């Protein structure tokens, strides 16, 4: 993995850890994410329009823009449903672990990106580290087979899907208008689901508008760095290395906030970090 791609992914991971920590304060996950997405679309629209005016919009990029809009809308909806119906300790490892593992597999079939033995080891360690950080060994059968698990799997499939589409998409369109159009389109697709509960939407904005503003800036900015990294490195490496954000979150929780299971958190973080190091050194 090139140094430039690694630095972009590390910056994206820091932003990802920060905005997820802020988003946890939201009352309703879907309403919170929708508000942040709409504001992101407004913030990125001027820059996106400027780049489109200067460079034009290649028609070859249209299928990928439409694809990422649909997949991100599914991602946000499924993530909101998963967090409402399932435990964080169940939803997070299934969603992120599935996304990382599938992204590397899909990249092999669609882009011919064969990971080196060191890279394969790195991706495997990242997936194992995600599960060891968040998985509870004594989950009941009802929770394991509940609706939260199904939505978490859909979230993971969406992560792998939009990673595949975006890897190809940013080869045809500059990342700035690409992410700007994605934010606008995904917000429009989510509009009917959110307007079905307008009271929750108003309450979420009234209660958490400051946090929503911060997330609206950090979330797309972090993913914009990922899009640039896609232009420089293999998709499987970028998606796996991005999960270094889990290490940042685990260290904050274990060392700063003194949350429980500190030993398991730090051990899992070390496994993820080892995987990311392998990915960083792989070619």
Largest sheet: none
Average pLDDT metric: 82
Number of helix segments?
12
Which shape, going by the Cα principal axes? globular
Report the strand count.
Answer: 0
Distance between the termini: 6 Å
Structural class: mainly alpha
Which segments are poorly predicted (pLDDT under 50) over 5 or more consecutive residues? Answer: none
**Domain module count:** 1
Strand proportion, as a percent range, falls in: under 5%
Output the helix-strand order. HHHHHHHHHHHH
| Residue share in helix | over 70%
- For the CA atoms, what is the radius of gyration? 18 Å
Protein architecture, described:
This protein has 12 helices and no strands. It has 283 residues and is mainly alpha-helical. The chain has one domain. The longest helix is centred in the last third of the chain and has 33 residues. The chain is globular, with a radius of gyration of 18 Å. The chain starts with a helix and ends with a helix. The mean pLDDT is 82.
Compact summary:
The chain is mainly α and 283 residues long. It is 83% helix and 0% strand. The protein is globular and about 50 Å long.
Keywords:
single chain, 283 residues, mainly alpha, 83% helix
């Amino acid at each position: 993995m090139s140094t430039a791609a690694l630095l972009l992914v590390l910056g994206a991971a820091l932003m990802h850890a920060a905005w997820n920590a802020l988003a946890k304060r939201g009352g309703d996950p879907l309403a919170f994410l929708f508000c942040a997405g709409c504001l992101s679309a407004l913030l990125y629209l001027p820059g996106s329009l400027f780049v489109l005016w200067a460079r034009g919009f290649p028609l070859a990029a249209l299928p990928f823009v439409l694809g990422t809009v649909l997949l991100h809308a599914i991602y946000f909806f499924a993530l909101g449903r998963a967090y409402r119906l399932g435990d964080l300790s169940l939803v997070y490892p299934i969603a992120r672990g599935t996304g990382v593992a599938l992204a590397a597999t899909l990249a092999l079939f669609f882009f011919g990106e064969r990971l080196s033995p060191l890279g394969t080891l790195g991706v495997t360690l990242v997936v194992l580290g995600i599960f060891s950080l968040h998985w509870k060994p004594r989950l009941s059968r009802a929770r394991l087979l509940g609706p939260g698990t199904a939505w978490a799997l859909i979230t993971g499939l969406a992560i792998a899907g939009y990673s595949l589409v975006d890897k190809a998409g940013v080869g045809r369109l500059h990342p700035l208008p690409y992410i700007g159009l994605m934010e606008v389109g995904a917000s429009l697709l989510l509009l009917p689901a959110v307007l079905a509960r307008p009271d929750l939407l108003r309450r979420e904005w009234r209660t958490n508008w400051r946090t929503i503003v911060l997330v609206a800036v950090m979330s797309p900015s972090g993913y914009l760095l990922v899009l640039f990294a896609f232009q420089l490195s293999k998709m499987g490496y970028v998606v796996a290395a991005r999960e270094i954000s889990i290490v940042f979150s685990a260290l904050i929780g274990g060392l700063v906030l003194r949350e429980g299971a500190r030993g398991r958190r730090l051990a899992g973080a070390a496994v993820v970090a080892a995987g990311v190091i392998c990915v960083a050194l792989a070619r």
